[in-house]
């Protein structure tokens, strides 16, 4: 069965754009191999600073640990949702 979907022509600039997108996706994060846990993703530096600040606030008892964990979990969920939205926008732009 033939695919009747129109396809954009492959051009050198389109290939370069795809390569750039792939490099950005690879560079946006990295993982660390841990003996028991396996590959663990490491957050970006600004996220690490946020988690450290939340942990410090909980350690000096300015906020309670359950509140700190809830804030951190919310931050992770929002970042994940944002990353998915950006990826979908990028895929749409690649198709244009």
Q: Poorly predicted ranges (pLDDT <50, ≥5 residues)?
A: none
Strand order of the largest sheet: 1-2
- State the secondary-structure class: mainly alpha
Number of helices: 3
Gross geometry: elongated
Q: Mean of residue pLDDT?
A: 76
Oligomeric state, counting identical vs distinct chains: single chain
Helix-strand topology string: HEEHH
Q: What is the tally of beta strands?
A: 2
The termini sit apart by 24 Å
Portion in strands: 5-15%
Describe it:
By secondary structure, the chain is mainly alpha-helical. The chain has helices at 12-27, 45-59, 65-95; strands at 30-34, 38-42. Helix 2 runs antiparallel to helix 3.
Concise summary:
With 96 residues, this protein is mainly alpha-helical. Helix content is 65%, strand content 10%.
List the keywords.
3 helices, elongated, 96 residues, mainly alpha
Which SSEs are present, and which pair or pack?
Blueprint: H1 12-27, E1 30-34, E2 38-42, H2 45-59, H3 65-95
Antiparallel strand pairs: 1-2
Helix pairs in contact: 2-3
